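Here we describe the complex-level prediction in full. Unlike the single-chain runs in Section 2.1, the two entities below were treated as one system.
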Amino acid sequence: MAALLELSGVSVRFAGLQALSGVNLSARGGEVRAVIGPNGAGKTTLFNAISGYVPIEQGSIALGGKPIHGLTPHQIAARGVRRTFQNGGLFPELTALENVLAGLHSRIDAGFAGILFGTRAARAAEREAVQRARALLELLGVSHLADRVVKEMSGGQQRTIEIVRAVAAEPPLLLLDEPAVGLAPPVRTQLVGLIRRLAGEMGIAVLLIEHAMELVMAAADAIAVLNGGAKIAEGPPAAIRNDPAVLEAYLGHA
Amino acid sequence: MRFYLLPLAACAIPLAANPYTQFVVNLMLVYILVAVGFNLVLGNLGQLAFANTALFGIGAYAAAMLMAHAGWPFWAAIVPAGLAGAAAGFLASVTALRGIRVYYLAIVTLAFGELLRWTYIHGEAATGGTDGLAVPKADFFGIALDSETARFYAFLLIVTVMVKAVSNLLRSKIGRAIVAIRDNELASASLAIPTGRYIVAAFVLSGFVVGVAGSLFAVLIGRVIPESFGLIELILHFAMVLVGGLGSLTGSILGAVALTALPEYFRRFPGLYEMFFGGLLIVFLLAQPRGLAALAARWWPALRERYYREN
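The structure predicted for the assembly as a whole is:
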């Protein structure tokens, strides 16, 4: 099967700093691929490049065989790429349900005039989206949070709602940027279960940036290692664990 | 349907009102549109744009000039007044889109309003200069709006239709997208929300609503003069939105009603007027920063709104 996401030779440069150089990476539906590396390795820049938040200097990024580099973030999102943010990207003043509804924005089939005049069709489209959002919150085990305002939730609850929102429109590709930051160990275990379900049951291609190695080892089918903006290793978790180049990147010269 | 209960009940107001109180009520209707329109940008979109008196003035002058110079009836001038406001709103949105935000946007839009006022003063041939422009008798689909009562029913109809339309917008994916952009613009884009388009839409809609309010104001006062659209007026608009509740439609209505009624009431105390009014404003905003809408929703939970939190 051809890869859903295909990065070839992607380079990103910020005012003299080579943030990414010649990175090749791919992602497949139903597979969790982790991206690890020391701080400053370019992991988040990689996500920003894929989702259109930073321009690439060289190389190409293709989704389903079609180039997406050069598009704006909302255009890339509209083609089926969804992401979460390292520092949390929820709308704090909205409830969990309203956040998930925002994730369904492009799926709500109601035009401006219909909304303005409150036509039956426009109201039905909104009602349908509400049902769908509630069903999704239920499916992913957080229906009890549906009507709570995000800013009053714990960090773990917020992380979960952000993932639910990201997958609401059934994107083929999901980018998770450090979803386990600040989570207690039992919540991390739940998160591994959630990520495995997204890939296994919904067939989503998941790219996962994470520092918590036990989570990466449990959740990922394959791991790519970045260091200094370049990919230095890639393979199944067991192989990466013992790869000398990876050990050196993390531990430095012996 | 619940929405229409209030305007229906309001139909009885002329039975109890003398011409002066009826005028004040009519002014409240004008300011309801002013606050509803301003709140779209200030509260829902969260942009510190101060072009509101500019939008209000453009709507008023557009209607007055169409009626006085081109002989259009009032009803035909309402939509053009809204479109003139919408065009000005579009200009303001372009500055916001180009990354001119917060204090810079505030100053640019303030300057825009003052520039327009300068234009009214110096465009004598069209605007009548500092003396302003007399607004001819208003015709609302064949009915002469020659009394406060007649104006009341025409205004009530227009305001009800427009507030209902804004309410529909706010309760839809459009209103949600606008609030989402306020809360986190980058994240909104990551959900396939075309953020630029919605920022423009919020400004244009706001301009349309406030422009229409300007046309009603012109007809109610009977004369448009540059002085009506200065900084004091802007502070009044700003206070209505803040006292009512940022981002709340109910709040816009409550704030407009309260801040139209209070100054009129305090007029009985010449000399102390500004002091009373200013003091009350300070105390209220310190005690209830979320506005009247928060108080109202606490007393009557049916008034709770989507995307507006009482605390």
